[in-house]
Amino acid sequence: MRAPPCGRVYENPNSRKSRYPRVIDTVCAIPPVEDVGKGAREMHTLRIEHPVRDFGSWKVAFDKDPIGRERSGVRRHRVLQPTDDPNYVMLDLEFDSAGEAEAFLAALQRDVCSSREASPALVGGPQTRIVEAVEVKEY
Fold first, then answer.
1. Hey, what CATH topology would domain 21-132 get?
2. For the purposes of burial, counting CB atoms within 10 Å of the CB of 23, is it exposed (0-12), middle (13-18) or buried (19 or more)?
3. pLDDT in tens, 3-29
4. Cα–Cα distance, 72 to 107 (Å, whole number)
5. Which pTM was predicted?
6. CA-CA distance, 67 to 84, in Å (whole number)?
């Protein structure tokens, strides 16, 4: 298995316009799930999507980590952005269990989304969904 590109930021502001998101921040605490099945470790991902007024302001607020991602069970996060929309953010937070993801989402809604100070760059409410990997394969 190849090691994930941990701690790297991928962004090329001069790249061609594309519908596909670009990874702009990746922090890896564990390797990705390679094969989900009997005996394999399951990962649950909280996907958060929302428009932002200004990505830089959003990223500063995100980096302050008001909820404490690691303390709340986040194993890895990925920040993605459509290459054709600098004012939209997608965030994947990976957890070992659906319960941890649900608890984090509740804290996020209670402590961040409802606070102008904690989320100064958000435009409206985020779309959220907890998903489970059913298959992951690297090529």
1. Alpha-Beta Plaits (3.30.70)
2. middle
3. 444 444 444 444 445 554 555 554 444
4. 9
5. 0.67
6. 30
